[in-house]
Amino acid sequence: MKNISKKTAGIVAAVIVVVIAAALVAVNVMKVSPVEAEQIALNQAGGGEIVESEISNEGLWNEYSYTVVNGDSWYKVDITGFGNIEEMESGSGDSWRY
Questions:
Q1: How does pLDDT run across 28-50, given as a tens digit for each residue?
Q2: How many helices (H) and strands (E) does the chain have?
Q3: CA-CA distance, 49 to 53, in Å (whole number)?
Q4: Average pLDDT score over residue span 59-72
Q5: Buried b or exposed e, range 55-78, using 16+ CB within 10 angstroms
Q6: What is the pTM of this model?
Q7: Residue 30: what pLDDT?
Q8: How far, in whole angstroms, is CA 72 from its chain's centroid?
Q9: DSSP-based three-state secondary structure for 41
């Protein structure tokens, strides 16, 4: 009976390791790179130029924040590590500097 318990515990431990490894691979495959995040910010602003950027590390992935100037309009775009828009703010003129 002890032999079966050890085998079962070994199988359970192996399954847990495989699940954790698969989760880590999935997170790395789904997260966006800084280049992809920049493109997302530019798309949200309808084009323009990135004038400020900040990348912060949140655990296993990064979060991105960009200020995009497009003509007289500015956009502050916060993007999650998976490419979702977390927050977006916009205005006109150079008030983005403050």
A1: 666 899 999 999 999 999 999 99
A2: 2, 4
A3: 11
A4: 90
A5: eeeeeeebbbbbbbbeeeebbbbb
A6: 0.70
A7: 67
A8: 28
A9: helix
